[in-house]
């Protein structure tokens, strides 16, 4: 039999005395890279002016904003689909091979997109950054989750929060990097876009190798020193294991699918409109001549939201270790309903400071929802195939990634058609999103312990009654 590959799971099993705190940096290396997807908007104007060369006055043959928006949508849809399709494969082959596949797809997506830019082929852009890159996103997103939960059974929320925090922060690296590279290459190619894609493909492919070659999995019988499984919260924390195939047969899986979908749909409602929202709501008309929010200030607002999206992923998921996942999601939805319903009032009363504070809290809970869901799944279904189960649940993200923007754009466009302006044009958006969170609150309330019949036979007897 041929010698096993360096990428095989057997080559990643940690030896005795291995420090588990070396694993989160490996996960972060992957998530900080693929989190660049959140910064795709920095390419929109340059990509829409490749032929004319003037981002402020695109020509008739340039790509339209609608065409370019499809690229990101494809990437997010493929993120969820690939996570669902490759989840069981990941559990079988281990995180190293999955991380390498993610790096090759994510980096390769940039290379194909660069060719699409050079040939001015929107279909190559769809295939490269959208399809191939999206597969890299999905595999990379779930690749460290199961491993982290196995290393940190005592701090599942902290562990997943550390990794998924990186995805939220990826844009904080990717955005300035892209801008700097396009400026550097602007004399080499139209607006410097094609060489920037090539450079970023190489940079991210190499950066992700740190995660590929430093990731380790614990031995099957490993436990943290002094670790005793906790029954502090309630029977929602199981000691058994449910396979991915059985998990999707349970009502708990689909309730959590609704929970994630509603949380993401509402959060995207703010992210999708953040810059025009604050400029239109707090314009010179509302605030007084010369006192309205400028485009530069709006960009700062978007950056602030990204920061709270990042911080919320670690803060809320870590807090869930103490409060319990169900309670944490009840806070996301209960507090979220009040804050979303409050936003139109703050806009109408021109309360800019409170508006910014409320928006930041909302985005922190949006990020927290992503980071807390793997631990919630592990509590309910066990850690054996939690990566595969998480992968299937991420189809909720794909759905929300389409649903959220469609709802927001429809409601806002309809409001403007009625002659509403400023804060009034966004009232229906935020009231609708508050209603969306009500659905999530009900779904979370209905979550109960998984029935014993779904557990693997060797562990069914261990399941909390």
TrEMBL record:
It comes from the Bacteria. Residues 1-452 form the Major facilitator superfamily (MFS) profile domain. It comes from Hymenobacter tibetensis. The chain crosses the membrane at residues 21-43, 63-86, 98-117, 123-142, 163-182, 188-207, 253-274, 294-316, 328-346, 352-377, 389-408, 428-447. The keyword Hydrolase does not apply. PANTHER family: MAJOR FACILITATOR SUPERFAMILY (MFS) PROFILE DOMAIN-CONTAINING PROTEIN-RELATED, MONOCARBOXYLATE TRANSPORTER. Coiled coil: none annotated. SUPFAM superfamilies: MFS general substrate transporter. Keywords: Membrane, Transmembrane, Transmembrane helix. The keyword Acyltransferase does not apply. Pfam families: MFS_1. This is OFA family MFS transporter. PROSITE patterns: MFS. The lineage of its organism: Bacteria, Pseudomonadati, Bacteroidota, Cytophagia, Cytophagales.
């Amino acid at each position: 039999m041929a010698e096993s590959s360096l990428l095989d799971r057997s080559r990643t099993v940690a030896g005795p005395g291995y420090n588990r705190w070396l694993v989160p940096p490996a996960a972060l290396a992957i998530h900080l890279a693929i989190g660049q997807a959140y910064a795709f908007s920095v390419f929109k104007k340059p990509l829409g002016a490749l032929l004319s060369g003037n981002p402020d006055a695109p020509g008739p043959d340039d790509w339209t904003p609608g065409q370019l928006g499809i690229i990101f949508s494809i990437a997010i849809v493929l993120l969820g689909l690939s996570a669902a399709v490759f989840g069981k494969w990941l559990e079988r082959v281990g995180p190293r091979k999955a991380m390498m596949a993610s790096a090759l797809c994510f980096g390769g997506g940039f290379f194909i997109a660069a060719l699409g830019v050079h040939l001015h082929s929107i279909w190559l852009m769809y295939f490269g950054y959208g399809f191939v890159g999206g597969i890299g996103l999905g595999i990379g997103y779930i690749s460290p989750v199961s491993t982290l939960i196995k290393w940190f059974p005592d701090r599942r929320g902290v562990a997943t929060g550390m990794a998924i925090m990186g995805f939220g922060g990826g844009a904080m690296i990717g955005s300035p990097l892209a801008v700097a590279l396009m400026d550097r290459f602007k004399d080499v190619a139209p607006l410097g876009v094609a060489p920037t894609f090539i450079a970023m493909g190489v940079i991210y492919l190499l950066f992700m190798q740190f995660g590929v070659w430093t990731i380790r999995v614990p031995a099957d019988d490993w436990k943290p020193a002094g670790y005793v499984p906790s029954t502090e919260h309630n029977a929602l924390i199981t000691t058994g294991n449910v396979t991915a195939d059985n998990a999707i047969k349970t009502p708990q899986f689909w309730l959590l699918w609704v929970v994630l979908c509603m949380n993401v749909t509402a959060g995207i409602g703010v992210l999708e409109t953040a810059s025009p929202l604050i400029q239109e709501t707090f314009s010179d008309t509302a605030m007084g001549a010369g006192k309205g929010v400028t485009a530069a200030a709006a960009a700062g607002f978007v950056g602030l939201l990204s920061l709270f999206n990042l911080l919320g992923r670690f803060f809320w998921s870590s807090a869930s270790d103490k409060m319990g996942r169900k309670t944490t999601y009840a806070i996301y939805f209960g507090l979220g309903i009040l804050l979303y319903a409050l936003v139109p009032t703050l806009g109408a009363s021109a309360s800019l400071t409170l508006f910014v504070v409320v928006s930041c809290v909302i985005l922190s809970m949006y990020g927290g929802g992503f980071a807390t869901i793997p631990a919630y799944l592990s509590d309910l279904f066990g850690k054996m195939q939690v990566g595969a189960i998480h992968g299937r649940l991420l189809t909720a993200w794909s759905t929300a990634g389409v649903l959220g923007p469609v709802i927001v754009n429809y409601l806002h466009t309809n409001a403007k058609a009625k002659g509403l302006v400023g804060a009034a044009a966004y009232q229906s958006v935020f009231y609708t999103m508050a209603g969306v969170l009500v659905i999530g609150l009900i779904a979370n309330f209905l979550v109960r312990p998984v029935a014993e019949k779904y557990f693997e036979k060797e562990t069914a007897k261990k399941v909390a009654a």
